[in-house]
């Protein structure tokens, strides 16, 4: 069976930096050749230097409060992360009515659980089934549903992932240790500044009667991107680790 790439442009041209707030833009995305030739005599990368210079100017001119910046960074490092998405998935597994709302209007259904905000405004949830596996990529840069998954992993932003997810999704999945049945269709979804996708993984077998909290422990970040599957009950992590399930 052939792979069906649900891959279109989604208005990728207006991937404006203004709408993104990506701190990684320009590192490997919008690289301007002339900048790479400079010798800075410093171990800091071009992007680190730019970020520092920009931060200094903004702070000096009073446009931003360094404490606010620290808080913002801490929020995404500790409070906002895949544990949010895991709660959404566990709810959908447990509550058919919620799942229906999630598939119809993900932004609203996710907001019901209190998760909203930057990079989570236009969410679409795509459901894995026996027939279909969904995989999410941003081919142009690194659009990602921050409100439910936190900040994107480095590989998500890498050029090889961004190109191969479309050209060879099965190969990418193999790199992640995921082998799907040959007959299973793979759909690749290209995130944009307008639409952020979240994969609703298949609920593992033998989890009947589990609480949402316990189910959430089986939901990994990668299974919500589509580069992984939900953990099996025998792989359930110990309780202490779940609150640290950030990166
Ligand atoms: Fe992007």
Question: Your description of this structure?
Answer:
The protein has 247 residues and is mainly α. It has a domain at 81-242: Nitrile Hydratase, Chain A (Alpha-Beta Complex). It contains 13 helices and 4 strands. A two-stranded parallel ribbon has the order 1-4. Strands 2-3 form a two-stranded parallel sheet. Helix 4 crosses helix 5 (96-104). It is globular and about 55 Å long. Mean pLDDT is 82; it is low at 1-40 and 242-247. The protein binds fe (iii) ion. Fe (iii) ion binds at residues 15, 138, 140-143.
Oligomer: single chain
Radius of gyration: 19 Å
Mean pLDDT: 82
The helix tally amounts to 13
- What letter string, H or E per element, gives the SSE order? HHHHHHEEHHHHEEHHH
Coarse morphology: globular
Q: How does CATH name the architecture of the domain at 81-242?
A: Alpha-Beta Complex
CATH superfamily of the domain at 81-242: Nitrile hydratase alpha /Thiocyanate hydrolase gamma
- Derived from helix and strand composition plus strand pairing, the structural class reads mainly alpha
Strand residue percentage:
5-15%
- How is the main sheet built? 2 strands, parallel
CATH topology of the domain at 81-242: Nitrile Hydratase, Chain A
Uncertain spans: 1-40, 242-247
Q: Helicity level, as a percent range?
A: 40-55%
Count of β-strands: 4
Name the strands of the widest sheet in spatial order: 1-4
Distance between the termini: 35 Å
CATH C-level class of the domain at 81-242 is Alpha Beta
Task: Identify every distinct bound molecule in the structure, by name, code or SMILES.
Answer: fe (iii) ion
């Amino acid at each position: 069976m052939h792979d069906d790439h649900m891959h279109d442009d989604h208005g990728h041209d207006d991937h404006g930096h203004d709408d993104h707030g990506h701190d990684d833009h320009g590192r490997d995305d919008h690289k301007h050749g002339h900048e790479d030739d400079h010798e800075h005599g410093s171990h800091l990368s071009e992007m680190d230097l730019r970020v520092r210079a920009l931060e200094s100017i903004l702070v000096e001119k009073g446009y931003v409060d360094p404490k606010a910046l620290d808080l913002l960074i801490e929020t995404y490092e500790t409070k906002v992360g895949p544990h949010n998405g895991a709660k959404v998935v566990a709810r959908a597994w447990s509550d058919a009515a919620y799942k229906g709302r999630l598939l119809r209007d993900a932004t609203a259904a996710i907001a019901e659980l209190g998760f909203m905000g930057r990079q989570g405004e236009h969410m679409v949830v795509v459901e894995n089934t026996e027939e279909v596996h969904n995989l999410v990529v941003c081919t142009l840069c690194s659009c990602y549903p921050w409100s439910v998954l936190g900040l994107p992993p480095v590989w998500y932003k890498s050029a090889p992932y961004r190109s191969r997810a479309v050209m060879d999704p099965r190969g990418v999945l193999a790199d992640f240790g995921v082998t799907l049945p040959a007959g299973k269709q793979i759909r690749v979804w290209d995130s944009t500044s307008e639409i952020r996708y979240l994969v609703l993984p298949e609920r593992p077998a033998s989890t009947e009667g589990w609480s949402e909290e316990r189910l959430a422990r089986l939901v990994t970040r990668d299974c919500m991107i589509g580069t992984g599957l939900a953990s099996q009950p025998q792989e359930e992590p110990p309780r202490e680790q779940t609150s640290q399930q950030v990166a």
